[in-house]
Design a protein that fits this description.
alpha/beta; 20% strand; 9 helices; 230 residues; seven-stranded mixed sheet
Length: 230
């Protein structure tokens, strides 16, 4: 039964991966992604890991969010950190200038950069987060991204991504209508699920990149998190 519900991983084509997509469509779809993060478990999965990490960081810390888009997860992370007595400074990285300029309040600072070549010093930030980023890359480039996340992190790395499942794909498709998602968001959301991982795959790809296995956890909303100390 589990094999039936877990299809083979497929690359597919996400419309928003095309840099020629109109800016208004990109921004509208990112609003849908932000709502999906809030309602369907993306934000919750990252915060669950960060709440385990924050007590180890002292009174002040820095966090780099790679693939930050509109910065909704860093904003939520700062709030969660403050509730635990931690002053958290967040830096967002994204390749899209349009997304970085659409909302400056999500991060304390933003950088336009490719995730495979981060302009950050070795061990330059305390925590590095990459949420729903890894599935955009083929295996060889995903390894480069993971190596970069590991290189720039001082205390912890958190990857959060989608757990591949026919149920997740069907649920996202059906739920996108009452949620009022843009057709591009609906299409790309299903492709993203089919590009997602199962726990063993995510663990293997991290191990190949950095030489040791992360802690991989199943989260609600068909999410997976992988965490490790660099």
């Amino acid at each position: 039964m589990s094999e039936f519900l877990t299809p083979a991983r497929r690359r597919g084509i996400e419309i928003l991966d095309d840099p020629g997509v109109p800016v208004d469509v990109m921004r509208r779809s990112m609003q849908d992604v932000e709502r999906a993060n809030a309602l369907l478990g993306g934000r919750r999965a990252v915060l669950a890991e960060l709440r385990e990490i924050f007590p180890r960081l002292g009174a002040r810390a820095t966090m780099l969010d790679v693939g930050t888009a509109r910065g909704d997860i860093p904003a939520a992370a700062r709030t969660a950190a403050a509730q635990m007595g931690l002053s958290l400074r967040t830096i967002g990285v994204d390749i899209s200038e349009a997304l970085l300029s659409s909302r400056g309040s999500g991060n304390d600072a933003v950088i336009r950069s490719d995730a495979m070549f981060l302009p950050i010093a070795d061990a330059g930030v305390d925590v590095v987060v990459a949420s729903q980023l890894l599935h955009h890359f083929p295996a060889d480039r995903a390894g480069l991204v993971i190596s970069e996340l590991n290189r720039v992190a001082r205390r912890a790395v958190v990857i959060s991504d989608l757990r591949r499942s026919f149920l997740a794909a069907a649920g996202l498709w059906l739920g996108s209508f009452p949620l009022g998602f843009h057709p591009v968001s609906r299409h790309d959301g299903v492709v993203s699920v089919m590009r997602g991982f199962v726990p063993r795959e995510l663990s293997d790809i991290v191990e190949r990149a950095i030489g040791h296995r992360p802690i991989v956890t199943r989260r609600l909303g068909f999410r997976l998190t992988a965490t490790w100390v660099p």
